[in-house]
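Suppose a classmate hands you a notebook page containing two proteins, each written out with its sequence and a corresponding row of structure tokens. How would you begin to make sense of it? This section walks through that situation. The first entry is reproduced here exactly as it would appear on such a page.
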Amino acid sequence: MDQEKVQQILNWPPARNLKALQSFLGFANFYHCFIKNYSKNISSLTSSLKKYSCFPLNEEALSKFHKLKEAFTTAPILSHFNPSLPTIVETDASNYALGAVLSQVSDSVKHPIAFGRHKPIPEELNYEIHDKDLLGIVWALKRWRAFLLSLPSPFEDLTNHSSLQYFMSSKFLLSVKPVGLNSFLNFISLSFTALSA
């Protein structure tokens, strides 16, 4: 982004009404794939879009607004995908969003390739947290399947729930009800690593 645009973003005033907030969120959504933890930063702002929301923004929404502005001006440089490099998919789920990062390791440094986010449908919001994490993994695998299917060796999925390591066991896969999920996963070669809390 050129310096003039960066300065315009830094000077963007906090939304004072619904129309101004919609304008900022429209801009933000266009660039969401470049911002890590975008879903976490946007949640309190999107909740301000409700019909009877108060303006000016509350303290939490205002804090997220400023974090997003800063993220736009300091976004990491995304690398090009290289199928010969070790690949990592990091997934996380919360009560309001699924997030994922596709990265590759080069010279012992992890470089982001793409960021992704997904807002679950209302039924999915009722899932247990390990099911939400599983949903996030499947969503990320489907989103980046063109990259992941081209890999000559297994990639790694980093998640914060160790119970998901059971997910790829043959016992689990035989019990999977959605046949589409089972057959999709048969083409993917991955290993899970649980992150410490």
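The notebook's second entry, a different protein, reads as follows.
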Amino acid sequence: MLHAFKKTTERTPQRSIDLARRRLKEVRA
């Protein structure tokens, strides 16, 4: 799953990356 996430972040704008990181934190918390 991490591999797929890293691959998508490579072609995703910085804004989307920050959003995804926030969602990941919410899911883990």
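A careful reader of the second entry would note: The mean pLDDT is 77.
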